[in-house]
């Protein structure tokens, strides 16, 4: 039995509150159970220096966690500088979003994504990716309405989920209690059309089998398909 009593393939309660920020071109407060992340997308008419004159744009992301998002207070990274974990997660978010954006159609400008974890209970990176796409979609819709874009540069949606082996059983959408004791866990980033963007899998002790990985992959595919539907409903 999972700590929350959920079925092995059951997601936590998921919600998307779009337009959460009054100032950002796109924004979404995404909740996966007790994990809450504010995702914003900001339009920038400039492009990174290394892309100037190449006729292409860029999508990049920053990730941070508020000091009391977890059980104990963490130090603000504005004082200490981003940790290795923070840098790895924000690069993952950026890669995940760029996989579904046509940079030539975006033109020589960039969209900056900010994912700020307000409260953490496992799965912050996957919640960030899933909410960030919603914010990105709103930002692009804004740019098209303003006449800044002629063609939609977004080629597909993208969502992410964590799955793992908890007490020997493959389960979807790990919360902290499960993640902290899981025998293996993996993060899956999957597009709305079912394409794989990235898979991060780790055994926390004994290696896991190909059959167990396939079970996790199956759970992730179903979960991301469900999340894709919820993203579209939130944006409707």
Automatic annotation (TrEMBL):
Which EC number(s) are documented for this chain? 2.7.7.56
| Family designation | Belongs to the RNase PH family.
Which GO terms of type biological process are on file? rRNA 3'-end processing; rRNA catabolic process; tRNA processing
Q: Which residues form the Exoribonuclease phosphorolytic domain?
A: 10-138, 157-222
The entry's keywords: Nucleotidyltransferase, RNA-binding, rRNA processing, Transferase, tRNA processing, tRNA-binding
Q: What is this protein called?
A: Ribonuclease PH
Gene3D superfamilies assigned: GHMP Kinase, N-terminal domain
Where along this sequence does the record place binding of phosphate? 85, 123-125
Subunit field text: Homohexameric ring arranged as a trimer of dimers.
Q: What class of enzyme is it?
A: transferase
| CDD domains cross-referenced by the UniProt entry | RNase_PH_bact
Record function comment: Phosphorolytic 3'-5' exoribonuclease that plays an important role in tRNA 3'-end maturation. Removes nucleotide residues following the 3'-CCA terminus of tRNAs; can also add nucleotides to the ends of RNA molecules by using nucleoside diphosphates as substrates, but this may not be physiologically important. Probably plays a role in initiation of 16S rRNA degradation (leading to ribosome degradation) during starvation.
HAMAP family membership: RNase_PH (MF_00564)
Quickly give the catalysed reaction: tRNA(n+1) + phosphate = tRNA(n) + a ribonucleoside 5'-diphosphate
Any one GO molecular-function label of the UniProt entry: tRNA nucleotidyltransferase activity
Pfam families for this protein = RNase_PH, RNase_PH_C
Q: Which organism is this protein's natural source? A: Parvularcula dongshanensis
What does UniProt list as this organism's lineage? Bacteria, Pseudomonadati, Pseudomonadota, Alphaproteobacteria, Parvularculales
Q: Which PANTHER family match?
A: EXOSOME COMPLEX COMPONENT, EXOSOME COMPLEX COMPONENT RRP41
